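Good morning N.,

You mentioned wanting to compare the apo and holo forms, so I went ahead and generated the holo version with zinc ion. This is what I fed in:
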Amino acid sequence: MATRLYSPLLLALLLVVTAASARAADYELLYHAAVSPDSEVARVEIRLRGERLPRKLMLHLNPDRHLALHSDAGLTLAGDTATWEPQGPDASLHYEFVISEKKSSGRYDSLLTDDWAILRSDKLIPPITATVAKGLTASAELQFELPENWSSAAPYANTSKSSNHYQIVDPGRRLPRPKGWLILGNISSRQDSIDGVDVRVAAPAGQGERLQDTLAFLAWTIPDVKAVFPGFPEHLLVVTAGKPMWRGGLSGTRSLFMHSDRPLISGNRTSSMIHELIHVAAGINGGKDADWIVEGLAEYYAANILWRSGAVSDLRYQQVLDWKETWGRKADTLFVKRSSGPVTARAAVFMHRLHLALQEASDGAVGLDEVARELARDRGRVSLFQLKQIVQKLAGDSVDVDAIIAGLERGGSRGGSGHAF
Ligand SMILES: [Zn+2]
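and this is what came out, ligand included:
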């Protein structure tokens, strides 16, 4: 029988790795928010505790929403930037956050009512540039102080302390910061584990009739989304609500908001829910003139995942592609700052054609999934240059991205038989 022996060096290395992963964080970072219908503002405290703290935090404020900043020491304000040099071992920064925000449509994308609040934690806590000594690690938590009968849902795991207390994970960030949608108050929610994802769907109490079918739709859909984007977050929170919330879908980190009037699958056989889910899964944004890549992927998969999961037939999927092609011709170009409507339809058609070209060039070995997966690998900003590099790596010179873009000008050529999706 062969015995596996670890060399002393390897053993020492293993011990070091184990010790490092078990090591406690250097300092504690607590985001504490008191929210109540008695006040239109959330009272926020950012508290740092530890012998060694970050040297400097620069908060990039929204002057309409972040008010009344104060700290015992080390705070200076210049324009919309607050610079805070926390003094250890226990330092606090306080401010107020205006919860409700009305969009120009007259609808809200953030709202506090007598019974609930829907908002985003990445607005509650503004973007922060931190100066942190190399290797200094934080244990970051988000805690809500709420009226007695209120509860909360956030896209993070609870700490053992209370159900309104969350452990923040923010990979790759020196200073972890909470992100994504929140719902607080008198709420209904349903929860399940779907393909390794802890999924929670939540709505204000009295608006939760569709939580269970939404959860079932996600159970039907997420495995196919995850097959394309294996980096899908471990937690997903879907917040839904009706009037006067904004009548659409909005993705956030590990979470999305969907107006409760929106069908899971629309009459034209695409799904806003899957569209937003792709944004959550990919976690990418468009660099200059590259928003069409982000929106095109979301819109392509919004129909493709339905087809792939068997929710629509080949015939119906082909009809969606035809319809997008017709609609996409209404746009003159993909290269706009914000892709929507016909530009996004045109971008989805591009994705479809790119998929067909890759399939043809590789005898079916690769397709758009490989491109999407690669684009989403670093969950950051994407560009046309990057897209071309990925295609080049997958298919060499046999697939010409520029030619496919130019080909969108020519109507009618679908470039593929009805079944070769
Ligand atoms: Zn979108």
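The chain has two domains: 27-262, 279-407.

Happy to go through it together on a call whenever suits you.

Best,
F.
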